[in-house]
Amino acid sequence: MADELWDELQNLAMGREDPELFIPHEAYASTVARNRLILIARPLNPRAQNLFTVISSLPRIWGLAARVHGRVMDDTFVQFLFQSEVDLISVQRREPWIFNNWFVAFQRWEDLPDFDFLTTIDIWVQMRGIHLPYVCEETVTQIAEALGEVVELDFHDATTTQVAYIRIRIRFAITDRLRFFRRVRFDSGETTVIRFQYERLRRFCSRCLRFTHLRNYCPFLQPLP
Fold first, then answer.
1. Cβ–Cβ contacts within 10 Å for residue 163, how many?
2. Least confident of 5-9, 22-26, 83-87
3. In the chain, at which end, N or C, are there fewer CB atoms within 10 A of the end residue's CB?
4. Whether residue 130 sits in one domain with residue 86
5. How far from 135 is each of 53, 80, 147, 220, CA to CA, in Å?
C-alpha cells in the first residue's frame, strides 16, 4: 500500500506548471563533440544477452578494454564510447559481432536518428549452387536482392579466383525471417536450388526462422506450412 501511494505521489503534476529551465549550448557542447565517437548497440536477444555483461565483455573481445567505455541506456540499447576514430572504425569493419551466440547490431551515433535507427544488421551470406554458365555479378545481385538490400558484393568477374560460393553482405531487418534455399529458373529454362549460408550465425528460432529468440520463446505461434 505504501509503495502504491509513493508511486501516485511521484506521478502528480508537481512542478509541471513552473517556468521552463533553459540550458545553454555551452553546458553540453563537449557532449555533442564526444557523441561522434559513440557506437550504439542493440543485442538482438536480451533474454540471452545480459546488457551489463555485454558492455563489459565486448571491449575485451575487441582488444580495447582500456580504451572503450560501455554504458547501458535502457532495456534494449547500450552504447560504447571510444577514444579514437581509428578504434571505432576498426570495430565497425569487423561487424557483425556475436555475444553469447547471438548477434549484436551496431550503428554510429546520430543526433537526430531516423525512425528506423538500429533496426537492421549487415550479415555476410555465402551463396552456393549457381551453375557455372550463369555466374556473373548481375545474376548474383538479382538473387541476393530476394533476401534484402545488397550492401557489398565480394565477387568480380575479372578478379575473383573461386566460384564454389559467392559472398554477399546483405542488410536484414532484425525482424526478417531467414531463408536458406531459393529455387531459381533461368531464361534458358534450366532451374536450380540456391543455398544460403549465413556467416557467424549460431542460433535462431526453428519455428519462425528469425535470429532474435529461440523456439521456446517464439512470439509467432502459428506453425510454418
1. 13
2. 5-9
3. C
4. no
5. 44, 41, 18, 37
Query: What is the total count of domains within the chain?
Result: 2
Peptide bond just before 96 cis, omega within 30 deg:
yes
Distance, CA of 79 to CA of 38 (rounded, Å)? 7
Amino acid making up residue 147:
L
Can you list the pairs that 68-74 forms with residues at least 24 positions away whose Cβ atoms lie under 8 Å? 73/40
Q: Which pLDDT score, from 0 to 100, does residue 224 have? A: 55
Hey, what's the torsion of the CAs at 138, 144, 145, 149, to 10 degrees?
A: -110
Question: C-alpha cell of 169?
Answer: 553482405
- Tell me how crowded residue 137 is: count the other CB atoms within 10 A of its CB: 14
Q: What is the pLDDT of residues 29-46, one digit of tens each?
A: 677 778 889 999 999 999
Q: Give the pLDDT confidence of 43-79 residue by residue, as tens digits.
A: 999 999 999 999 999 999 999 999 999 999 999 999 9
What is the identity of the amino acid at 210? R
State the CATH number of the domain containing residue 138: 3.30.70
Give the pTM.
Answer: 0.82
